[in-house]
Structure formats: C-alpha cells, structure tokens
Give the backbone structure.
Amino acid sequence: MVKSSEKCKVRRALISVSDKTGLEEFARTLSELGIELVSTGGTAKLLAEKNIPVVEISELTGFPEMMDGRVNTLHPKVHGGILGVRDNPAHNSAMRIHQIPLIDLIVVNLYPFEETVARGDDYDTAIENIDIGGPAMIRSAAKNHRHVSVVVDPDDYGSVATYLREKGEVPLEVRQRLAAKAYGRTAAYDAAISNWFAKTLQYPDMAWRSHGGALREVMRYGENPHQWAAFYKDQSGDIGVASAKQIQGKSLSYNNINDTDAAFALVCEFDPDQGAAVAIIKHANPCGVGIAGSLEEAYDKALRCDPVSAFGGVVALNGEINQGMAEKIIEVFTEVIIAPGATPEALAVFETKKNLRLLLTGEIGDAKRDALEIRSVAGGVLVQSKDNKNVDDCTLQVVSKRAPTPEEMADLKLAAKIAKHVKSNAIVFVKEGASVGIGAGQMSRVDSTHVAHKKSKDAAKAAGEKVPLPRGPFWLQMLFSRLLTV
C-alpha cells in the first residue's frame, strides 16, 4: 500500500461522465500511461468503441448494473477503494480481507439536472436526472484528497494529464484545489435541485436555502479597485447578461455587468411587438427611456432626457439594431450595448469602436418570469421573489378631479414602468412616450422631485422647449408618484 511519504501514483481511475467533452483524448492518455480504467454504462461503451481498454464497473464490484444504473457505483468496492487511507493499517487490512482495489483517480461529471430543468422538462424527467452515485463518489474522493485526485470539469483534463505524464502524480496542492472545486460543484448541483423543488412545490420558506453557480469570469476588480470580484452564472436559463454572447470589446467589469443587467431588465418591460423601447443606464439608474415606432426614434427620446449622464452609459434596446441605429449610438461614448440582435451592417459600424462592448441576447427577456433576488447582509442573505409585475397588471383608480386622457394615461403607465427600475426615492417625469426628468436615490422624495424637475428643465433648454413648473398641491404630486411606483 502507498505510504504518506511516497508519491500518490495513479494505478487505477474510475471514469463516469454525462458530458463526454474531451473524454476520448484524456482516457487514451491515462491508458497509455499504464493506468487501468474502470467505467460505467455509456462511458464504458464509448471507451470500448474507441478501442481504449476499459473494465466494466460490474467486474470490479461483482454485481451487475441494476435499477437503471441507480446503484452501480454505490458499493463498498467502489467507495472503499476511494476512501481507504493508504497509510492506515486498519484500512489496509480491511481492503486486503475484502479484496477492495485502490482507486486513485475519479473522473466524474453529473447527470444534466440543470439543463433538464432549463428545458422545461416534466417533473418525472427532472427527478430521473438527479444524480446520486456521482456526487457520492465526488465527495468521497474530495474528502480523501490526500491520496486521491478528483476531476469534475473537462477543462482540467489537460493539466491533470500533464502532471501525470511529467511528474508521475498529481501534486498535493493540485489535489487540494481539485477537491475544493469538486465540493463547489456538488454544492451548486444540490442547490439547483433544492431550489427547483422549492419552486415546483411552492415551498419558498424551507429551513435551509442555498444558491450556486458556475464561474463565468473573474473581474479585473469589483465595485472599487481594491475589491475582488467574479461573475457566476446560475442554471436558471434566463435571457440576459449571463447568457448573452459578447461580440466585441474588452471584458466586462463588475459595474458594467450590474448596469447592463439593470438596463436590459428595464427594456424587457416593453413587448417588441407593441413598439420599440430604448433605455440608457448610468450607475444602475435610468437616465433616459423612450418608446416609439422605431428604435432610432426611441433612442432619440431616451437620449434627450439626460445626454450628459448618458456619456459612458449602457444602452439597452428591445429589438434588432440596424446600421442607422448603430451609427446613432456611436455618436455618444457608450460603455456597453445590449440587444436581442444586430444586423451585419450594424456589426461593421460597431467594429470601428474597439472598446465598445456589444452583447447580443438572441431574444428579449420575459419581465414576468419567476425568479429569486438575493442580497448579502452581514451574517446571511436576504432572498425575495422577483418583482415581476408592472402597472399593466394593476387595476388603476382615478383620484384626480379630471381623468387623464388616453395619451396621458399611456405616459403615466410609462412613468410607472420606469419608476420600478429607479432607485428609491424615485420620481419620473414623462411626456409623449419618453422620460423627460428622473430623480433617483434621494433620501427625500421632495429632493428627488427637485432633481427630476431640474433634469427636465435642462433637457427642455437643450431642445429649445419650455418646461412648466409642476402644478397642484405638492403633497398630491408626491402621493401620485408614490402610487405610480406601487
């Protein structure tokens, strides 16, 4: 048996994967290094088809695969071979008595539960895609990482093969990092299952809640230069920043992602079949929103609201960007653009601005979808359901002496949709399908009103128009603003 002072030579590897990416090359390398390969079901079949020597798991355990593969690896000869401490005499004795062979490398990825749920498959299909044996092997190997290497990510195949080829082992510090990664994977997997149950059974207030995701990228820094930050993508299948394809530009920063998410969430409030919508965001607050018959007109409306703040902002659109729209946008320095799509001619325009980040989502998101919003606090997290309603879902009651005209009501509804995405205290002035003044994030609603009015005066002055002072009792203005944000 291997002693702690000896190298952790890999003699036998157990491979059982759903995602076969890169498997053939990796398995062939292991076999060429003299490592015996043990495998299960479809993985064993694939290796045999590729003429890579493989031992069926049933040969190792002495039991046939049964119950649709549910119990094929749940066996003492599997877990004993993984968990046995190589320099523990009692463990060694038990392995000799029970003829348990050592397993030094575990290569496992899990049943595609997250993908199954994202496709919207039915309850029974989701249940059948909950992996049991895989997480058990991963956790066993990760616990015994002093002697065993565990690989859960095809991206690690190359480096592990290199260590085995050049050093004859996977170094301890690498095994430790692989173990940490393995526990992260099983934690995210279990979180996805738990949260699916909570949503499916309408059981949000479970005694324990967890949330996980896969690393998409490490940021250069966080909200401030001294802060570490990373972007993790969960398995909700949402349309938005996490699943968008970045066409060009340098990597997104923490603040870019936060602002882009806010911008896209706002334009998702507007159905493209009912008209074009454009939102310009700065520091997670809208500085201009417009709706119109075309994206170009909607953009012009949004930009007029606050062209100063729009400089260096994020532009979100609810339709495909054409060449004319692209040419308009690049007239103002813009950090990020996000939209469902862009024509080849528009892409050619954007290519002239190398630092401009362009994200394409493929489609517009569903503003009414169910989701969870999570915010960390000292010692815990706050979790709430997403605000997936807007003023169109509300029964409105006219409390003024004069009822709004249809045009005024349309503007009031637009103001309410915008105010939903403005940090409180929020005041939004709207005219003819466009925001004309936005006051955000003030401690007093009175101050927010003053900010919004100043913005409207500045915009009107720039456009050569006049903006009257707000009329009516001031308390009524604030109350009406409050009603619009409910």
